[in-house]
Amino acid sequence: MEAKHATDCAPWKDSIDPVAARSVAGAIDELAEFPVLDATVLRVIALCDDQDSSAADLVEALEQDATFAANLLRFSNSAARAHPIRAKTIRQAVMLVGRRALRRLALEAATYRFLERAKGNGRASCGQLHLHAISVALGSAAAADEGQVSADTAHLAGLLHDVGKLVLPAVFGEEECDALSRENPSGADRVLAERERFGIDHAQCGALLAESWGLPDEVASIIAWHHGGPTGVGAPNGAVACVQLADIVAGMLNGTEADHALLEVCLDRLGLTADVLDVLAHQVTQTEKRDETGALARRVAELERLSQTDDLTGLANRRHWLQTTRAALQDNGGGAILIVDVDHFKAVNERHGFAAGDLVLTELARIIGRHGHAGRLGGDEFALLVPGNLEEAAQAAQRIMAQVSEVFEAGSGPKIDLSMGCAAAPTHGDELADLLEAADVALLDAKRAGRSRAMIAGAEFRADDIAAA
Questions:
Q1: In this structure, is residue 42 part of a structural domain?
Q2: How many domains is the chain partitioned into structurally?
Q3: Which H/E stretch holds residue 241?
Q4: What pLDDT sits at residue 423?
C-alpha cells in the first residue's frame, strides 16, 4: 500500500502497460487533432493571466469570435451574476465579469461544446460528460478556495478529468466498454477493472490525451490521479484532492455510493472536515439546476447558431455554408452552385451610404435564400446551393434576377444588378472546391461580358433568355 500522501505525481506513467499504451496511441493522436481549447480561448486565457494586458486587449480578442462574445454577454447579464447593471457591450461585460470569471467561462464554454459533440458522449461508458465536467470543475474550484489551493489549476483539471472515457471505446470497442461500466459504474472498482481488462484506465488515457494537447504537466497528473492512482487512495497534492473530492460529491448527488477511503484522504490532504461537502454540493448542483430549466442547453444552442450565421444577413456564414454544402453534395450525389456578386456595389455605398448598402445586402439575402441553401461568402458575394442540375440552377438564377429587378425598381432607390457564375456536379467535378473554381471562372466571364447576367460553364444566359443556357 502506498503512503497516504505521496509527494510525487509523475510516476503515474509507470503503472501503464506498455502494450496498452501503444494500443491507445492512435486514438489519442486522432483526438489530439481536435484540441478542446481553440485559438480564441487560449488567447483569452493568456490575456487574463497577463497582468500587463488591458481591457482593450481582451475586448479585441473577444470580438474576433462571435460565439464566445455572445456567451460572455449572456453570462455577465445572467441571474447568477446578480449584478444591477446590465452589460450592453463586450467592453462592459469584461469589466463586470472580471478576469478570473472570464478565464473560467472561456474554459467551461469550450469544454462543454467539445464534450457534448464528442463521439460516445451519452453512452453507458461515458455518461453525460459535458454536464459532469462542469459540475466537477465548479466543485474543484470551490474545494480549492476552501483548501487554499490554486483554483485555476483545479478548475481546468476538473473540466477535463474524464476525457479519457473517449479513448477506451475507440480502441477496445463501445460495447465492451459499456458492459464494463455497467458492471463497475464508478470509482476505484471501475478503473481497477479497466486496468485488468485493457492494461490502462480512463484516467491514465485522459492524462496522455492532456499531454498530447500540450496542457501543463500538473493538469495531466491530476487527471491521472483523480481516482486515487494505482492503489485507489492516493492524493499526491492538494490540487489532486480537490478534483477527487468534487468528483466524489458529484457522484453522491447522482446516487453513487461515496468512496469513503478516498474521501477521507482528500479531506485530510486539504485540511478540511466533512462540513465542506455541503458547500461543494451547492456548487456542483448549479449545473444540474441550469440544465433542469433548459437554460444551459438553450444557451449553447444559441451560441451554435451565432457561430454559423452571418451577422448582417442572417444567412449561413462562409465557413458554415462551405461545411454544409460539402456534406449535402456528398449525401445527394450532385447539385449546382451559384456564385452571386453585386455589380458596382462600391458605388452604391459611396452614393447612398453604408447603411443603405447594408439594407441592399439584407434584401438580396432574403431573395437569394428563397431558392436554395444560401450563404454569404464575404462582402457583396453570395453563394447558393441548388438541388438538381444545371437547368434547375438556370431557372433559379432567372427567378432571382426577376425578383431583384422588381424590388429595386429604377427611380425608387439604388439600381442593383447581379452577375452570376454557375457550375454543377458531376458536370464540372464532384468536389466542392472544383465547383467553386468553375463557378468563379463563369462569374468572371459574366463580368467581362458586360455584367448584369449569368453564365454557366461557358454558356451565357440572361433572365429573359433562359433557353440560351
A1: no
A2: 2
A3: helix 238-253
A4: 93
Binning the chain into helix, strand and coil, the percentages to the nearest 5 are: 65, 10, 30
Q: Provide the pLDDT for residue 306.
A: 59
Can you tell me the distance from the alpha carbon of 289 to that of 41, in angstroms, rounded to the nearest whole number?
26
- Determine the 3-state secondary structure of 195 from DSSP: helix
Distances (CA, A) of 364 to 142, 354, 408: 52, 15, 10
From CA 441, how far away is CA 457, in angstroms rounded?
8
Rounded to the nearest 5 degrees, what angle is found at the Cα of 433, between the Cα atoms of 373 and 396?
A: 35
The pLDDT assigned to 296 comes to 42
The domain boundary, picked from 257, 284, 305, lies at: 305
Structure confidence at residue 147 (pLDDT): 92
Three-state SS for 285-331 is HHHHHHHHHCHHHHHHHHHHHHHHECCCCCCECHHHHHHHHHHHHHH
**What are the contacts of 210-215 at 24+ separation with CB within 8 A?**
210/160, 210/163, 212/28, 212/29, 212/31, 212/32, 213/32, 213/35, 213/36, 213/37, 214/35, 215/156, 215/160
Q: What is the pTM of this model?
A: 0.57
**How far from each other are the two terminal CA atoms of the chain, in whole angstroms?**
82
How much is the pLDDT for 75?
A: 59
Are 284 and 363 in a shared domain? no
> Does residue 254 sit in the same domain as residue 182?
yes
pLDDT value for 460: 47
Express each pLDDT in 317-335 by its tens digit: 998 899 899 999 988 888 9
Can you tell me the distance from the alpha carbon of 322 to that of 278, in angstroms, rounded to the nearest whole number?
49
Report CA-CA distances (Å) from 456 to 325, 334, 384, 402, 444.
19, 16, 14, 18, 11
For residue 361, the domain's CATH number is 3.30.70.270
Beta strand 459-461 pairing with 381-386: unpaired
Domain span at residue 25 reads 10-33+118-305
* In a shared domain, residues 337 and 205: no
Low-confidence ranges of the chain (pLDDT < 70): 1-10, 71-72, 74-87, 285-307, 410-412, 458-469
Find the CATH number of the domain harbouring 240. Answer: 1.10.3210
How is residue 406 written as a grid cell? 422588381
Please give the pLDDT value at position 275.
87
Please report whether residue 93 resides in a domain. Answer: no
